[in-house]
Amino acid sequence: MPLTPRALYEEVAELLRQRIFNRELAPGSWIDELKIAEELGISRTPLREALKVLAAEGLVTMKVRRGAYVTEVSEQDLREVYELLSLLESDAAAVVCERASDAELRELQALHQELEQAAAPGTGSRERFFALNEAFHLRLLDLAGNRWRKQMVTDLRKVMKLNRHSSLFKSGRIEESLREHRAILAALSARRAQEAREAVKTHFANGLEAAA
């Protein structure tokens, strides 16, 4: 497939990132550099640069004299990721209660309504649900206004995606997640910072229980 003029290693990193998220490259699998380079019609230099990017994101693990492997997320890894996400996003929710305008809170409400539609039986799309769920959380971080916090969360969420199909796909978890989002929105709309903080912590605690 043709690559755009953007830095070649960035294009390759994004291509591999999506293959990992889509399970075309499964957790624990070896990444065949020669095969991928031939497939894309590129040298191994930009491919190796791309793998360094993915390794920095935690999606790829480099093993001495063995090459690159898609990262396998252990239960401990997952617990640590969820704990950090809970701390960072609950703090962001409290900030949003204090700083966000009414119009910005309505943006979150609109995103949540799309999320509800994506989860509707027979008409929804689970892949769209995943995308909207992430958009909701990232918009909350935007409104909190700390770019370093958002960057940390974005990187952590990439690692979390390695396990996403065994969390939200568990029976009943999507419906439970929606109820938790409603509680978060209610607290945000009422501008009750501590309640919003606790609602987000509950959301991640339940998510971890479903994912572990």
TrEMBL record:
SMART domains xref list: FCD (SM00895), HTH_GNTR (SM00345)
Pfam families per the UniProt record, alphabetical: FCD, GntR
Residue ranges constituting the HTH gntR-type domain according to the UniProt record: 6-73
Alphabetical keyword list: DNA-binding, Transcription, Transcription regulation
Iron keyword on record: no
Gene3D superfamilies: GntR ligand-binding domain-like (1.20.120.530), Winged helix-like DNA-binding domain superfamily/Winged helix DNA-binding domain (1.10.10.10)
One Gene Ontology MF term: DNA binding
Transcription found in the keyword field: yes
InterPro entries: GntR_C, TF_FadR/GntR_C, Tscrpt_reg_HTH_GntR, WH-like_DNA-bd_sf, WH_DNA-bd_sf
Record protein name field: GntR family transcriptional regulator
